[in-house]
Amino acid sequence: MTLDPRRTAATAVPDTALARRLGDGLARVRGRVSAGADLARITWFRVGGPAELMIRPVDVDDLAVVLAAKPADVPLTVIGVGSNLLVRDGGIPGITVRLGRGFAEIEAEDGCFIRAGAAALDANVAKVARDHGIAGLEFLTGVPGTMGGALRMNAGAYGREIKDVLVTAEALDPAGRLHTLRPEDMDLSYRHCGVPEDWVFVAATLKGEPGDPDAIAARLDEIRSQREDSQPIRTRTGGSTFANPDGHSAWKLVDAAGCRGLTIGGAQVSEKHTNFLINTGTATAADLEALGEEVRKRVRETSGVELRWEIRRVGVPADHPDAVAATDTSETGDDA
């Protein structure tokens, strides 16, 4: 992947206990390193505490340096654009890696292949496929977030999943070694990926089929219109809150349990689509998580079905001993 010319020298390192533990390894990182980064400003819910140490590597080699420097007992959390993510109010202890521009390239290749970095927006992958007359990837315009997140949860929409179009995925293991994985290596199933959580996806190659760009564009417009009409995408929300249980639609179970419009604090079950939670403006992460758990309880009581969270919940509560203090408020939605 192309290096960011603004990040060719070693970055300044915060003087914190964790940064000192990482020592010379952290000093070799070329991307931005910050302590106490404000994650609420970059997640779609706009809630949550800070990251103890945020690292934004510039490319795969830089990320490999981060992983090799990380002690085994230091937790690692990887985030993209924060679309399907609920960061708890006490923040994220350990290292948070945020993949940005150096991982966002998308290239069309001969044979209806698309290669995309892990930070590439799924909707942008669909657009590049359209521009090159590659059909079969239109569903990605209905998947919020990035390719890395889509790989991690085998994301899908409108009848297709990542596993249906995936050729290979590339990931770094905890030692920073690069692996090329085939779908059969990844134990992919509905909203599940069996690749170890401490492996970091960096890219994927997808395969479509020849198609008419105008027909593909029409399908993209149709999907976007359907999302606009049925989902609260203009609010502070994440993706679908719960995975669909076998034989059921999560939203129907939530609706049947009487949860449409249910509120706890500043969190609300969407009136428009009951599988979405909304921050009405004053919600905390604790409000949103408590609301989700209350919904799960009511669905269990009314239908006997156990809902499984699809939203990824990370970090610790505000009263946790490892809660992180905010010291850097400069993080924004822009990539470094």
UniProtKB/TrEMBL annotation:
Q: Does the keyword Cytoplasm apply?
A: yes
- Pathway named in the protein's UniProt entry: Cell wall biogenesis; peptidoglycan biosynthesis
GO BP annotation list: cell division; cell wall organization; peptidoglycan biosynthetic process; regulation of cell shape
The Gene Ontology CC terms held by the record are: cytosol
- Cofactor requirement: FAD
Q: Tell me the compartments it is located in.
A: Cytoplasm
Q: What is catalysed by this protein?
A: UDP-N-acetyl-alpha-D-muramate + NADP(+) = UDP-N-acetyl-3-O-(1-carboxyvinyl)-alpha-D-glucosamine + NADPH + H(+)
EC identifiers of the protein: 1.3.1.98
Query: What sequence ranges are listed for the domain FAD-binding PCMH-type?
Result: 46-211
GO molecular function (one): FAD binding
**Which UniProt key words apply to this protein?**
Cell cycle, Cell division, Cell shape, Cell wall biogenesis/degradation, Cytoplasm, FAD, Flavoprotein, NADP, Oxidoreductase, Peptidoglycan synthesis
Active-site residues (renumbered): R191, S240, E310
Q: Which HAMAP family match?
A: MurB (MF_00037)
Q: What does this protein do?
A: Cell wall formation.
Query: Which protein family is it in?
Result: Belongs to the MurB family.
Q: State what protein this is by name.
A: UDP-N-acetylenolpyruvoylglucosamine reductase
